[in-house]
Amino acid sequence: MKRLKTLIFIIVLGCLVFGIQCLSDSKEKIELNIGYQSITAQTWGALIIKDQHLLEKKLEAYYPNAEIQVNWYDEVSGSVINNNMIAHKYQIGYMGDMACIINLFCGDTERNYNSELVAFDGKGIGGRNQSILVRTDSEIKTLQDLEGKTISVPIGSSAHRMLLEVLKKQNLLERVRIVYQDTPTACNMVMTEKVDAVATWEPYPTAMQIEDKMRELVSGVETGNTYLAGVVVDSDWVKSHKQIAEIFMQCIEESHDFIKEYPQESIKIICNETSFSSEVVATVLDTIEWESGISPKDINTLKEDCNFLVETKKIDEFSVVKHIKR
């Protein structure tokens, strides 16, 4: 009898140890995939969160027993981020306003995808941070000199909208040739004289001018259209990860505070994360308003951007407002 009790005790103890071992081996796993664009200055807030590990630190504090992995994917365009979000590979995306709207449209029309604009990163108030550029040695001196010339711009972007409005004001819309390329490609095409001008956003205008490769022909300020860059999330993911989403929102605010309070450190971080010089980064940072809040004025801007995308047949009409967190 005594041997039986001892055997039972050993078996029970073994089960307890095995159970505890299984629990320790099955730690909760938190994995988050974020798409961003280091070549877009108004999404540089993402670089601060990434470099300072703001998200990991907060998640580790809130989920001390979890295995945490945050993956950052630097993409050349918002369309690449959108494709990965629609495929549920990325949960969060930093993009320019037009790409954000296209993402929200897909969330409205795709059967298995839902999305929401939860915050802004950087804002180019009144058209700041966009330009039409020509080579420094170009014979093009005024807008009228663009007649018969070729201009490159990323299709369906805020720079595209800016370009069309500028050309329309000068009655040049039907008298130029527009080709559609991503910004790095477009700048290379200008420098190799395969196109005559490029319409784009910061940091390229500042970088090209500081390097004396191009000069600004027209500033986006001519249109007065505010250029916004936002943060879009997969709404279905948020529903099952509300606390993580809230923690990420806190990180957005902290990244903006960091840029404002530690400008020199921010410049170093952004230089390390991009190929741009400290002079370029410092100059550009001063032109950006780091404000995550979505104001009524911002919503009106998004509505106007949405109308532009409908007119250029990038999307069909839909209610962008119902996909904005307020």
TrEMBL record:
This chain belongs to which protein, by name?
ABC transporter substrate-binding protein
Report the source organism.
Claveliimonas monacensis
InterPro entries xref list:
SsuA/THI5 (IPR015168)
Per the record, the coiled-coil ranges are none
Q: Where is the SsuA/THI5-like domain?
A: 129-265
The highest taxon in the source lineage is Bacteria
Signal sequence bounds: none
In this record, what's one Pfam family?
Answer: NMT1
